[in-house]
Amino acid sequence: MSTKNEFFHPALSPSTNGQQLFMRKVAKHNPQVFTCVFIRLCLKSLAALWHICKLFGLCKMGRLFLTKLDGAFYTCKLCHTHLANIEELMSKTFHCRHGAAYLFNSVVNVTVGETEERMMTTGMHVVADIFCVCCCQNVGWKYEAAYEEAQKYKEGKFILERGRIVGGPKEANLISSDADEA
């Protein structure tokens, strides 16, 4: 294997060939995850971040415009970016690996990852993870398709994991904190 490191800025390159190979595989097969993780690592060095953004074509013209929501809304737990208006909340009875999850009709300020088939408690679905557009945290998923007729209502809807969001009306916070203790 060549000792030349053509993929990474020298100041941030992984220390072993195994780490380099792993990062190349992640970049190739799951660019959304690679982008989010690697940009977080690069925040230590602005020059390195610029190099990585140029290398992977992440630099886009203009600035990031965020949708600001009025009234009661939910935000990303890490960076407080607005994600969903309380009026878009359809159900609080969903669950994810980490606890409670809410079903929304629509969300804002997210990017949608690649679709995949995933077995859920209600059957097989085609879903895509959704990420906060600012901090790249995985905040939930989007239902793209459902195989069972009874689950078709979920298609095009979004799940936000309760542990990765904050906000909403005061009664929503009380209900969710009671449910988390049970």
TrEMBL record:
Source organism phylogeny: Eukaryota, Viridiplantae, Streptophyta, Embryophyta, Tracheophyta
MF-aspect GO terms: metal ion binding
Top-level taxon of origin: Eukaryota
Entry protein name: Yippee domain-containing protein
PROSITE patterns for the chain: YIPPEE (PS51792)
Family: Belongs to the yippee family.
Keyword set, alphabetical order: Metal-binding, Zinc
Domain Yippee: 72-169
UniProt-listed InterPro entries: Yippee, Yippee/Mis18/Cereblon, Yippee_fam
